[in-house]
Amino acid sequence: MHPKALLDACAELVKLTLQFQHPADAVVSRYFRDHRNLGPRERATLAETAYTVLRKKTLFESLARSGSGPKERRLAILGFHAPRNFLKAALSEQEAKWLDQCDAVQPEDLLPQHRHNLPQWMADALQAQVGDQFEALAASMLEPAPLDLRVNALHAKREAVQKELAAAGIQAVATPYSPWGLRVEDKPALTKLDAFKEGRLEVQDEGSQLLALLLDAKRGEMVVDFCAGAGGKTLAIGAQMRNTGRLYAFDVSAHRLEALKPRLARSGLSNVHPAALAHERDERVKRLAGKIDRVLVDAPCSGLGTLRRNPDLKWRQGEQAVHELTEKQLSILTSAARMVKSGGRLVYATCSVLPEENERIAEAFQQAHPDFVPLDAGQTLEQLKVEHAASLCAGGESGTRYVRLWPHSHQTDGFFAAVWERK
């Protein structure tokens, strides 16, 4: 595609994503469906340009004021994901001159909001938590995430799959914490690989793998993944159970559970039972009261721990929306907890980095349910042979009460988890 046509397409896609009517990944997928003639390279340029603009929206909007022409074109020029000489072939002389001026701006000359590119309420909330690490955290959230894979322990060993990927020209390194994980820096076409088609590999962030590990599901148990979604953790838990026992994958969205079916077929698991619930107090939940060995509640949340993958979330979530979510989170956790039997384990998790969705929910639940005894997450992960387990945790007197994962210090998405055992 000619540089001019590709830049025009980028400007069109930027305009669509900035309407914030739908999640960015859905907007990009829809655009590709409507433009089937685009090749893989053009798709990569389009998607990365749109995501770069979403990541650095505050900075780019500030720089765009000194340019001319349609705003979305100026933003697409600033975020254009291709070599500069290719881009300049698409620009007028005036635009090229303006771009050189923008490129000459040094990071230290920028205002704080143009460096962190976060809404102010979010920047304040994060700074209050991480203090002088804020700049490092904000910078890490502007980077694209690497591709993390989980080896299906039911069918393969990590080293064998690593060699299989290397034979296909894909360099993967073992993740530092999860015993099942491999990390790939590029975006290879995984779906074409036998390892993927035959269920030896799944895409899953290392942090998400650790949450499944924390449940420590055993052979022959009754286990519930309460907000299963598309089932990344469900599949990890099923393999952990060695395909024995019963694993219920519950979710209020039948549409999300549909996405689990092809993954389930590939995985070779037969112990998983997906079911859509009407709401968190569904009849099925009542029928399982006091019968379940382990329950994972990966609650619906703001998703602000996943900004490396979903940069549009910071512009689509507001303080009010987060406040409304917290009521839902406590209600879901309270309902799911009823299923845990005496001596059973409960894990509450989110992919948020905000205390009101995390520690405060765990503390409110704890206060109302003295029959649930909090476990030390650091010690629990240590018992599961996770290396450097204490460094993954925070809170409590020993500092290891909760799992607290951060992109800048652990290279995972931002995650939280609390663990209890029922008396």
Give the key terms:
423 residues, alpha/beta, 9-stranded mixed sheet, 13 strands
Structure in words:
This protein has 423 residues and is an alpha/beta fold. It is built from 22 helices and 13 strands. The protein has helices spanning 3-17, 24-34, 40-55, 57-64, 71-79, 84-88, 93-103, 112-116, 120-130, 134-141, 158-167, 194-197, 206-215, 232-240, 254-258, 260-267, 283-287, 313-316, 319-337, 359-368, 377-383, 407-410; strands at 147-151, 172-174, 181-184, 201-203, 222-225, 246-251, 272-276, 292-298, 340-350, 372-375, 393-394, 402-405, 415-422. Helix 4 (57-64) packs across helix 5.
Net shape? globular
Q: Major sheet, described briefly? A: 9 strands, mixed
Distance linking N and C termini = 65 Å
Which structural category do the helix and sheet elements fall into? alpha/beta
Mean pLDDT: 96
Binned, the helix content reads 40-55%
Based on the structure, what is the oligomeric state of the protein chains? single chain
Which band does the percent of strand residues land in? 15-25%
Number of helices: 22
Number of strands: 13
User: What are the low-pLDDT stretches, counting only 5+ consecutive residues below 50?
Assistant: none
Radius of gyration: 23 Å
